[in-house]
What does this fold into?
Amino acid sequence: MSESLSLAARAAYILRDNSTGLITKASPTLYPHQWSWDAAFNAIGLATVDLPRARLELDALFAGQWRNGMVPHIVFDPAADGYWPGPAQWQCARFNEDAPAAPATSGIIDPPVHAIAVDRILAVAAAKGGREDELTLGWAAHLYPKLLAWHRFLARDRTDKSTGLITLFHGWESGTDNSPRWDIPYGNVLVGPDLPAYTRRDKAHVSSVGQRPTDREYDRYLWLVEEAKEAGYDAGLLRESGSFQVGDVLFTAIYAAASDLLASFAARLRKPDDAAELKDYAAQARAAVFCHVDEASGLAADVDLRTGSWLRTETVAGFAPLIAGGMPRYLRQRLVTLLTGPRWAGHPALKWPLPPSTSPCSPAFNPECYWRGPVWPVFTWLLTWALHRSGEHALAARLRETSLEQLGDETYAEYYHPMTGAPLGSLNQSWTAAAALDWLLDGEAA
Ligand code: 2M8
It folds into this structure.
């Protein structure tokens, strides 16, 4: 069997094995539920092997959408146990009347990559043609109002008026949970004495606890869940009381790119007013990201909205302008040079020339620990997608090929040690398998 065939077969097997028949668990034991942005990436991978399952994945996720349009960051599988905090801690339907009674969900959000997934699934179906193409188009038209409601929710409830950035009330909402980009705002989160006692379940599923956030960090994560609950998961109230409030450039960039794609789909559905509205969201979000580029480093900076200060830690989120798309060529060139240069993918100590989650030159860099340094293949996928979109095909192809080499050990780890290449976190992580499948399909197309 050729190497890429074996990689694809193994990746497809993982997605099948992590399936409950309805959803794809983010990973077999560490994350036994459906996560919002994982589901979108997983659907992209599934599309290459099984279009009906790709469609089902997003349908199942949107079954957890709240009446106000919010897509929660977790839709819980009632049959799964072993993840903390679960539905009994979130109690969303009790605290907010917009939350569905079933399925049970969390009360916070994840980056809005869903319209990107739908666009990619439509492209795979179109390449196939025939009945699958028709079915997929009909499915996407049916999902469209839900996507629109989600983008409207982010514009209405989460766009910060002063910066134009999307506001997050929990680091989990960024998807880059313990990234050092959040160290300063988390430093101001004071855990109250009434934090309910809890036992961490996550540490049992990794080979070394140093790969996961610390207990101190976890206390803060759970405290913020209590705060959100106390505010009835209401963005207006959280703006008054939340002790963690940040403007996230990466989230905002993803929102810009996804709004653009959704606007094109609205136009295809002959909904010109929606298309104009979505284009507006995209333009405003993109402008907000570009306005937060730090001149000295060239990277975009998040904002601590409670103090107004820019957060300048060198994390991969700083490449947000590349993801937002629409950068003037000379600015894009600067970022591309930075990305491949010695502070990032070109750092001489790296095993593979791939961007780590935090620059090895940053004092906050920790090569083993989660979002503080390891390479995340799913993030590399997002970068290759964005690079293709802005015409940087050669670099996208290089990152793709290197990533496929990185995944050659077939562990499909959640993240990898940037210096040794060792697999870290959960093995058989769904979105890593999904990224590989899409990359392999891309090779086939080429
Ligand atoms: C990680 O986050 C969860 C909390 O949401 C956790 O650590 O328990 C993050 O990597 C997040 O981005 C991802 O969506 C999730 C599931 O893969 O795991």
Remarks:
- Strands lie at 34-35, 74-75, 166-168, 246-248, 302-304, 309-311, 415-416, 423-424.
